[in-house]
Structure formats: structure tokens, C-alpha cells
Design a protein that fits this description.
19% strand; 40% helix; single chain; seven-stranded mixed sheet; 7 strands; alpha/beta
Length: 267
């Protein structure tokens, strides 16, 4: 539609779709993490009764011809107006990507989920606040809330004033690394320590993630099931596979099945 192009990658399970269709996990910044998440799902899907993970359709969104991503575009696409185009990015995901995928694959329309890290993690929280009906699950890892704090707070306040919650509670997962805010032992020799520490303090990523998670939790059970966790020993980069692993069962876990006696995580 006249804007910059995206690549949309789809990894479809080999097993047939269940009667309601596959659950879907949309991965932002797929140029960085698509292969990692494919292998995580593949390993767990081999023994679903033990791992609790269903066959899942993975949808990745990335910038073409550049890996892991175009930094300039990424900074704009996940940021709030007037500097950024987060609203347009959200509309692209919901109004273009979702119907395009659904027209080609057997998907469960009630089980779309989205994962983002860092700038994309903050965008995932913005997506929940702006269009909470769009996805069943929202997973933010190390969200850089400082990039759109005012807009996110405004959207969440408006959400709290709404009388019409979504058809079912949304799953909201927020993971943040211990060393997203603290200085890790291996970072103590980084250059310009004074500026480095000041930047960490100003962004307050652990405190902000906890604060925003609390706001979402206080919306109540009609709105969301909220899970917040500080991952010990993880920094802004190392958190990604750990957060993905912990979030999968909450987002695409096997639903209760009396016939095999297994109780999986559900949404």
C-alpha cells in the first residue's frame, strides 16, 4: 500500500491441523529469531503429552534483504506517534497479515498470539492496550517501555475506562532480565561506565515492566491473565530464548484433554 515492504514467513507443522485449526504465534523481528523458535516448537512437539506444546503455526514478520533487521525502520515502526508509526504497524499485522495467513492455512481464529523483544516487546504491550481483541496472547520480553511510555500509559488508562472487555481474557506475559536494569558482572568493564549506568537507571526497564504489568493485572480477570517474571541471570540479549521457552506453554499449550489425562497450559 505504498509503504516499505515486509517479508512474512510461515512455518507449518507436518501434522494435520486439529478440528479448530492450528494455534498461531506471530513472531516480530523474525530475521533474528525465526529459526530459534521453529526448533523450540519442533523439539517440544515431538512429545506433546510430556511437553504440553501443541502443533503451532509460526508466522514471522521481518524486513527483506537484511538480517537481523533494519534498525532505522525498526525504531520507527515500534514507536508511538509523532516520531513513530506503531499504529500503522499494528494495523498491518491485524488487518493484512492475519487475514492473508488465515486464507492460506487452517488456523484457529481464537488462538492468535504475538511475541516481541525489546522495542518489539514494548510494541506488543502497546498492541494489547490499543487493540486488545486482536490477539489471544501478548508476550513481551525485555520491553523497552521507555520508548513509548506516555502513549502506553494513555492507552492503558483508556482501556481501564472501557466497559466492554474482549470476548475472553487475554494472556499477557512480561519477562524481563535481571540485568536489563542492573549491571551484569561481565558489563563492568564496558566503556564509559558513568553514562552506561545513568542510561540503565533512566530507562528503569525492570521497574517499568513491573509497573505496567501491575496496571494490566489491575484491569481484572475479565481483561487478562497476567504473568510477570524477572529472569535471574539474563541480560537484554540472553533473555530471548529463555523467555520464548517459558512463554510457549502459556500461549500454545495443550488444552485440557480428558481422554489422555493431561492438563496443559491454556488460554
Amino acid at each position: 500500500e505504498g509503504g516499505a515492504a515486509f517479508e512474512v514467513h510461515v512455518a507449518r507443522p507436518r501434522s494435520p491441523a486439529p478440528p479448530d485449526g492450528y494455534p498461531v504465534l506471530v513472531l516480530l523481528d523474525a530475521g533474528a529469531y525465526f529459526g530459534t523458535l521453529i526448533e523450540m516448537i519442533r523439539l517440544r512437539r515431538n512429545r506433546p503429552a510430556m511437553t504440553g506444546i501443541e502443533a503451532t503455526l509460526l508466522v514471522g514478520v521481518s524486513h527483506p534483504d537484511v538480517r537481523p533487521y533494519d534498525r532505522g525502520r525498526r525504531a520507527r515502526e515500534y514507536a508511538a506517534p509523532p516520531e513513530g508509526t506503531a499504529h500503522e504497524m499494528l494495523s498491518f499485522l491485524v488487518d493484512t497479515v492475519k487475514p492473508a495467513v488465515a486464507s492460506r492455512h487452517a488456523v484457529d481464529p481464537s488462538r492468535w498470539n504475538v511475541f516481541g523483544h525489546s522495542l518489539a516487546g514494548a510494541f506488543v504491550l502497546y498492541a494489547f492496550a490499543a487493540r486488545s481483541e486482536a490477539f489471544a496472547g501478548y508476550h513481551a520480553a525485555s520491553p523497552s517501555i521507555w520508548t513509548l511510555r506516555d502513549e502506553l500509559d494513555r492507552r492503558l488508562a483508556a482501556l481501564a475506562d472501557r466497559a466492554d472487555p474482549p470476548p475472553s481474557p487475554r494472556t499477557v506475559i512480561v519477562h524481563v532480565g535481571e540485568y536489563d536494569q542492573a549491571i551484569a558482572p561481565w558489563q563492568r568493564s564496558a566503556p564509559d561506565q558513568e553514562a552506561f549506568r545513568a542510561r540503565r537507571a533512566q530507562r528503569a526497564m525492570v521497574d517499568e515492566a513491573r509497573r505496567v504489568s501491575g496496571i494490566i493485572e489491575r484491569l481484572g480477570g475479565d481483561w487478562s491473565s497476567t504473568h510477570f517474571e524477572v529472569l535471574e541471570g539474563e541480560d537484554h540479549a540472553s533473555i530471548v530464548p529463555v523467555a520464548m521457552s517459558r512463554g510457549l506453554r502459556r500461549l500454545v499449550g495443550i488444552r485440557s484433554r480428558a481422554r489422555d489425562g493431561f492438563q496443559g497450559g491454556s488460554i
